[in-house]
Design a protein that fits this description.
Radius of gyration: 17 Å
Strand content: 25-35%
Low-confidence stretches: none
Number of strands: 11
Mean pLDDT: 89
Number of helices: 4
Shape: globular
Bound molecules: N-oxalylglycine, manganese (II) ion
Helix content: 10-25%
Structural class: alpha+beta
Largest sheet: 7 strands, antiparallel
């Protein structure tokens, strides 16, 4: 597995294969989905990392809101997560890959994306994440959301599809969380939902954010 860490981050996301259609789609409909667009190595890497974290008991219940606004809200979401950090090599490789994507998005779409945060997520059976936006209009924190799926052996009826809603409110897409599928969406514009799972479901979810620092507070919690 660790031989893969010698690969260049750009090779892991294979950005050149899909960045142009991705930017066109983000600019027109606000979301993009690619199946088998990236290297299997990246999927294996993050799957191995999740399995290891799970074994170590490092996942914790996800909530909503940050810092003092944090709530568990099990009526809204029931996934278990781990925030990525550079201390572990596989996580650092993923964050490096996301950094190449951040620069590519800025170059083409002039979004001024400043940083990236991401977590691994595990939805046990009977979990879900109700219809939501990843950012609120005007809050200007999360601009582009990314989801990468890590589920190799999906069967019909496993549930946990990602439903995207068009800005008008109608269903725009229903995405099977199959290993190697990548989704990008505009965080303030695309409402989405994870349908109830019948089998365990693993993903990496990440957000490209603007720099929210103010003169007196560097990168305040949002
Ligand atoms: C999220 C989210 C979608 C998914 O974590 O905010 O919407 O398919 N995840 O895992
Ligand atoms: Mn979301």
């Amino acid at each position: 597995m660790d031989i893969s860490l010698t690969e260049r981050p750009a090779d892991l996301l294979l950005i050149d294969n899909w960045i142009d259609p991705a930017c066109d789609a983000l600019a027109s409909v606000g979301w993009f989905c690619a199946r088998d667009a990236l290297s299997e190595v990246l999927v294996d890497l993050m799957r191995a990392e999740l399995d290891e974290l799970l074994e170590e008991g490092r996942l914790h219940r996800a909530g909503i809101g940050r810092e003092f606004d944090f709530q568990l809200a099990s009526d809204v979401r029931r996934d278990w997560i781990f925030w990525l950090a550079r201390a572990r090599p596989r996580q650092a490789a993923f964050l490096d890959a996301a950094e190449t994507l951040r620069r590519a998005l800025n170059r083409r779409l002039f979004l001024g994306l400043f940083e990236f945060e991401a977590h691994l997520a595990l939805y046990p059976p009977c979990a879900f994440y109700r219809r939501h936006f990843d950012s609120f209009v005007g809050a200007a924190n999360r601009v582009v959301s990314l989801v990468l799926y890590l589920n190799r052996d999906r069967s019909p009826g496993d549930g946990g599809e990602l439903v995207l809603y068009a800005p008008g409110g109608g269903e725009a897409a229903r995405i099977e969380p199959q290993a190697g599928t990548l989704v990008l969406m505009l965080s303030e514009e695309i409402e989405h939902e994870v349908l109830v799972t019948r089998a365990e479901r693993a993903s990496v979810a990440g957000w490209f954010r603007l720099n929210a620092s103010r003169a007196d507070v560097v990168d305040p919690p949002r």
